[in-house]
Write a structure and sequence with these properties.
Helix content is 41%, strand content 17%. It is α/β, with parallel strands linked by helices. The chain has one domain (3-218): NAD(P)-binding Rossmann-like Domain (Rossmann fold), CATH 3.40.50.720. The longest helix has 25 residues, at 91-115.
Length: 222
């Protein structure tokens, strides 16, 4: 049991992670732009724009004071924009992808690690295109590749303070929003949010302390 800080807590993947940890007896502190309407005696919500450092710093400090410092931080904030060739990608599109995916993780890791006084675990969510780049995904590939690299940096820097950092890399996550455009055959093969939640829980458990700096690919069902 411990305290989990979960960014993007109102999202579909985060909801699965939150449910898993609460069932296991953890306290979950959620950070999301609009707050979180979920109600539980073991859940606390702090409206937070994870792309604004001042906002993140204040919310994290308040959570540490009111609830307690985190034993683990799981960063799920991320997203995509319509796929475009590099020549058609606007600066607005590119910056938005970097901010939403990479900057949000940087701030979660930076300020989360500052609050981890007794060691802990950091988990990021990467994406398969960052490992196998393809056309029309330049901004997203760059952002998620940055997340993977930054996670490995955090793994090295965290060793002195007994903090591990690992990145889970799914293909397509089976969420309701993704199911709107996927075929029945494809959807059946996508990575389940509950499987990702279980992997997160392992990495933040006592057994998971032996894993650090790993890029864990979860391609779903073959």
């Amino acid at each position: 049991m411990g305290i989990l800080w979960l960014t993007g807590s109102s999202g579909e993947l985060a909801s699965e992670i939150r449910e898993k940890y609460i069932k296991e007896g953890w306290t979950v502190v959620g950070f999301s732009r609009t707050g979180d309407s979920f109600s539980s005696a073991f859940f606390y919500s702090y409206p937070t724009d994870m792309t604004e450092e001042g906002f993140v710093e204040r919310s994290f400090a308040r959570a540490a004071e009111e609830i307690g410092p985190p034993d683990s931080v799981i960063a799920t904030v991320g997203g995509v924009r319509p796929w475009k060739m590099l020549t058609d990608t606007t600066m607005e599109d590119f910056r938005s992808l970097i901010d939403l995916n990479l900057l949000s993780f940087f701030l979660a890791a930076k300020h989360g690690m500052q609050q981890m006084t007794m060691g802990g675990a950091i988990i990021s969510i990467g994406a398969e295109p960052a490992l196998e780049p393809s056309a029309k995904k330049g901004g997203y590939v760059a952002a998620k590749a940055g997340v993977i690299a930054l996670t490995r940096v955090a793994a090295e820097e965290g060793k002195a303070n007994r903090i591990t950092a690992n990145c889970i890399v799914p293909t397509i996550i089976r969420t309701k929003s993704n199911e709107e455009w996927g075929s029945t055959e494809d959807i059946s093969k996508w990575t389940s949010p509950s499987d990702i939640a279980s992997m997160c829980f392992f990495l933040t458990s006592e057994a998971g302390k032996a894993v650090n700096g790993a890029v864990i690919r979860m391609p779903g069902k073959m």
